[in-house]
Design brief:
single chain, mainly alpha, 3 helices
């Protein structure tokens, strides 16, 4: 991660995560991805990658929640 004097590591990470979620969960991205990958193997790869990303975000959310308490 890159450090900037006006933002902490946590703030930068939070902004990055929000931007990634907005991009990867946008309707346009999802439709373009599935239309571009019409083979069964590519479909499975994309579903597996999406599932792993969602799992990562859920774990990160609960980790942050437990740190704040």
């Amino acid at each position: 991660m890159v450090d900037y004097p006006y933002a902490s590591h946590e703030e930068i990470e939070k902004i990055r995560d929000n931007l990634m979620s907005k991009y990867y969960f946008s309707f346009t991205y999802i439709v373009k991805t599935f239309l571009a990958n019409l083979t069964w193997e590519e479909f499975k790869r994309n579903v597996r990658g999406g599932t792993q990303y969602i799992s990562f975000r859920i774990k990160k959310f609960f980790h942050r929640s437990s740190e704040e308490q």
